[in-house]
Each structure stands twice: as C-alpha cells, then as structure tokens.
Design brief:
With 279 residues, the protein is α+β, with helices and mostly antiparallel strands. The protein has four helices and 13 strands. The strands form three sheets. Strands 2, 3, 5, 6, 7, 8, 10, 11 and 13 form a nine-stranded antiparallel beta sheet that branches. It has a two-stranded parallel sheet with strand order 1-12. Strand 6 and strand 7 form a beta hairpin. Helix 1 runs antiparallel to helix 2 and helix 1 packs across helix 3. The longest helix is centred in the first third of the chain and has 24 residues. It starts with a helix and ends in an 8-residue tail after the last strand. This is M23 family metallopeptidase. It is an enzyme of class 3 (hydrolase).
Length: 279
C-alpha cells in the first residue's frame, strides 16, 4: 500500500468513526431519517478499511522483516512487561501507528505499596498516585535528537475495573480514535536515534517533559515522567521503535534492550538505578 493510499484510508477511517459516534449520540435525542440498518454501513466500512490496512502492512513486514535494533532500557528499577512482542506480533493486535513491536511496562517495586490489582466492581477508578509507575523517570534509549515532545494532555483516572474498562472501550476509545494519533498515545516524545530508527514514549505525565523538539540528548538522560495520558488504562510506559517520526505512516521496528532483551508478558525485569545527568 503506497504512502498516499495509507494517508487517504487513515483519514477516511477517522471520518467514518466520527460519523458513527455522532449518529449514536443523535439517536438519543431525535429519530434518525433512515432505517436502523443503514447505520451499520459505516461501521462495516471502518472494519473493512482497518482489515485492509493491517493486511497490507502485515504483508510488507512479513516480506521484509527488519532486524532488531539494540537500545538502552527506557527506565530504571523493577518493572513488568505487558503486551510484549516476545509473545505475539503485532504485540497490540495491530500494525497501526507503528505498534507492531511495541511493549507496555508497569512498575512493580519490591518495596512500598504494590501495584493495584484489577477490580471487578469496586473501586471503579483509582488515582494515579496509587500506581508506582506514575512519575517514574523515562530515559533516552540512546544518543538522539528530539523530534517531537508534548505534555499538555491531562492524566486521567485509572480504567482498571470492569465498569471503567467498558467505558474505556465503548466510549472513550471511539473519541480518541476520532481525535487522531496524538489523542491515542497522549503526551509523548519521539526520538531520532539515527540510522532511520525512531523511538516513541507514550502516555507521558502532564507537564513533566524536560526536553523539547530539536534538543540533543544522550543515552540515559531523563526525558520526563511516566504518566496516564491518552489511551491508557493505568500509569505505564508504552515504548516502541519505528522507521519514521510520523505515527500514521511509520512501520514498527523490533527492539532489544541492552542487558534485558525483550521481556515477555508478565515477566519481571530490573534495570540499574544509575541515571546519566542532563548535560
């Protein structure tokens, strides 16, 4: 699929999702001027476009699988992996937004309050400070140039209960998809690591960034803090490598963290506490 076609289908998909969302809201207040079954047409179109895009990108990746790029771990301390490419590819169930080899990690320190478990009924939500990952330092995975950096979006409450998760998928997820890539990844940083490889740090804490676009950073330098912005159920880091800075066009690139490798889902790993100071 050409770059132009990927852009066109991406825009069309977001417009159709917006139409479906408006239709659902409008149906609560007025009687729609067409049969009920007509409303399913754009939904089917969204699914068809998404399937076609995934198939196209998937064929490209299978035909020419990229070699893993070794980089430094983006955190220190004790963490656990979720949605790991060590278990399945694409790790998040989609090649979209360059997520083919993305990984989610949550902090699980040996000391202090543990990470709250999933709640079926109560509490519906929790404050971010209840999660040990919230506010943890995020570190540059290598010497790089900051391509993009933003931290103006809010950190919302957790979505790790049954009721909150339903809201997350049925309502919030649609709204963020309509809002485009930046509403999905929330506050984020994109680093140019050189050699056509870029690193994305997603769900960064609001107002925590210590870098801006154009800055030169060194491996281990603090970029900001782990947060809960964007399409996130709890404070965590979503990390991925990709072949371009534009999330809508980029394809995922496999990674390997020095001294860690690629931790599988549920696997706990530890990284030394030494942090390179800001030059």
């Amino acid at each position: 699929m050409s770059i132009g076609m990927r852009k066109f289908t991406g825009v069309l998909q977001r417009l159709l999702v917006l139409y479906v969302f408006v239709q659902v809201v409008a149906a609560f207040f007025v009687e729609l001027p067409y049969p009920y079954w007509v409303g399913w047409i754009p939904i089917l179109a969204v699914l068809a476009i998404g399937f076609a895009r995934r198939r196209a990108v998937g064929r490209e990746i299978v035909a020419e699988p990229p070699a893993p790029v070794e980089v430094d771990p983006p955190v220190t301390g004790r963490w656990s992996a979720l949605n790991s490419p060590a278990d399945k590819v694409p790790s998040h169930g989609t090649h979209g937004l360059g997520q083919t080899y993305a990984i989610d990690i949550v902090a699980v320190p040996e000391e202090g309050p543990p990470r709250p478990a999933f709640a079926w009924l109560w509490p519906v939500t929790r404050r971010n400070r209840a999660f040990p990952a919230f506010g943890a330092p995020l570190l540059a995975a290598g010497d790089a140039t900051v391509v993009h950096a933003e931290d103006g979006q809010r950190d919302h409450l957790s979505r790790n209960s049954l009721a909150a998760l339903l809201y997350f998928f049925v309502i919030e997820g649609i709204g963020r998809t309509v809002g485009g890539a930046r509403r999905v990844v929330g506050n984020h940083v994109v680093l140019d690591l050189g050699g056509g490889t870029y690193a994305l740090y997603a769900h960064v804490k609001q107002g925590s960034l210590a870098v801006k676009a154009g800055d030169q950073v060194v491996a281990g330098q603090r970029l900001g803090s782990c947060g809960n912005s964007g399409n996130s159920t709890e404070p965590h880091l979503h990390f991925q490598l990709m072949d371009g800075p534009d999330l809508n066009m980029a394809r995922g690139v496999p990674f390997s963290w020095r001294g860690v490798g690629v931790p599988g889902g549920g696997e706990t790993f530890a990284v030394g506490e030494d942090v390179t100071p800001v030059p």
